[in-house]
Amino acid sequence: MKAQRGARALALGTGLLLALVGATASATPPTGVPPEKNARDQGPPAPSFDPEVSRDRKGVDNFRRSDPREAALSPVAESSGLSAETAAQERGEVLTLAEVIAALDLHDPRLEAADRKREAAEGKLLSARGGFDSKLKMRGLVQPLGYYTHGVADLRIEQPTPLWGLGVWAGWRVGLGDFAVYDGKLLTAAGGELRAGVSVPLLRDGPIDRTRADIRQARIEVARTGSLRDAKRLELEAKAAEAYWSWVVAGLVLDIERQLLAIALERDAGLRRQIDLGNREGIIGVDNRRLVLDREGRIVGAERQFQAAALALSLYLRDERGAPLLAGADRLPQRFPAPEAPALIDLEAELAAALERRPDLAATLDTREQAEIELRWAKNQRNPRIDLSSWVAKDLGPGPEDKLPVEVAAVVELELPIPLRKARGQYQRARAELAQVDAELRFARDRVAVDVLDAHSALAAAYQRARLADEQLELAHDLADAELRRFELGDGDLLLVNLRELAVAQAASDEVEALGRYFTARAALEVATGLGVQPVSIE
Predict the structure, then answer these.
(1) Could you give all domains of the chain from N- to C-terminal order, each with its CATH number?
(2) Is 306 buried (19+), middle (13-18) or exposed (0-12) by CB count in 10 A?
(3) Eight-class DSSP state of 57
(4) CA–CA gap between residue 246 and residue 250 (Å, rounded)
(5) What pTM was estimated for this model as a whole?
(6) pLDDT digits over 168-213, tens only?
(7) Of 237, 300, 280, residue with least CA distance to 83
(8) What is the DSSP secondary structure assignment for residue 130, as one 8-state letter?
(9) Of 382, 441, 480, 496, whose CA is between 20 and 30 Å from 525?
(10) Where are the beta strands (DSSP E) in 73-228?
């Protein structure tokens, strides 16, 4: 598509639309009208079109005020609260897609919610690490009355470790007074008893236990929520790009409708003069008035579409406080950028790169890793519990002879639930959950491939439609030009002129919409490949 043709067509056919039919206000009357009457009565010459001046024509923009017969519609239009956004005005700083994406990154509540979810995952990780916190235990007992009066104090510090489930502990206790024979172990020397010990599981909870599994899963969850946040960002970028280009399309189509009305208004003034002079039949003026009303109605519809697009865009475009920001017509670009023809690519390489970049796939891989950890833990729980414990103790100070020597002891504990239903049920559930995640992972990979292929297909189709729409617009211009010349020579009628005008406007609108689909498809492809929406130069 040639850049010159694209720039003219993407400017919505503005100059040629008015040049083609605006001259009817001063059109040559039918054969037989004296030349001197032409010069005196035809009215002002056809205006030369200036896009900037046209956009500031208040009569064209707000026909409700310029036309006394439609004045009652003015307060109705203003009741929407959005009439200022659609008012034709001088173009200011163009709103770019990059600005929308930047606002999305900084202020979108959905991304903020994703950030909070990641913070919650970090809190869960911190909580899981608490399984290895040191524990201080204290116990005291005083029995002042009774046959055996005594007191006992016990202080103990326990420290679990991630080393094969190893746990260490140390403590001090003192027991003084009279103890029954069966409580003799509570008695200590006068300075109390220092003791320390270790315990280690040999099978169950040795290679992995619940605490270590929770920590690993929580650490993965932090990474997974980060990937989910990135995936949400890509999803919102695609939607923001679609909303932005829909806003651009709606605004430029509104320009087309206003220019179409301007044509009818320019012609209406000239026709009224010619009807007053008897050069035209009165019914032609009535028909042109009907065209004016029809085009005013089209403007109302186009205004509504632009307002709806601005509202949809405001969910992504936000101010510094995070409040939705309505983008008015003053921020519209003059035209679409020229589209670039899609190039042939190595599809397999692009699919492989997309699989590496897509954060939603990374999140599914994280889920699978969590399921693998759960399966390892459940498999370990089927083993019998064999715990080895050992400790050493030494009483301090004077006391009974049997309390003064150093004590060393070791214990082996065995626990084996015979049916193992709990452990077997946990293993069955973990294995099924891993198989479920594997199925989801296969689908996620398939979805990435389909997303990329579909985006390429949509982009290729959108470019072709834009190219064909450009050619159609050029032909519509040629037909409208020919019909105008017939009308000027008295060989045509206003109905055919109107049809050709509408065809030009429709062709211009079709091209704008085709270009909107092209740039939306391009953004979708960038998201599908995991790159994120790239900035587009627009003015």
Answers:
(1) 3-116+220-362+441-528 (1.20.1600)
(2) buried
(3) -
(4) 6
(5) 0.80
(6) 999 999 999 998 888 888 999 999 999 999 999 999 999 999 999 9
(7) 300
(8) G
(9) 441
(10) 135-143, 150-160, 167-177, 193-201
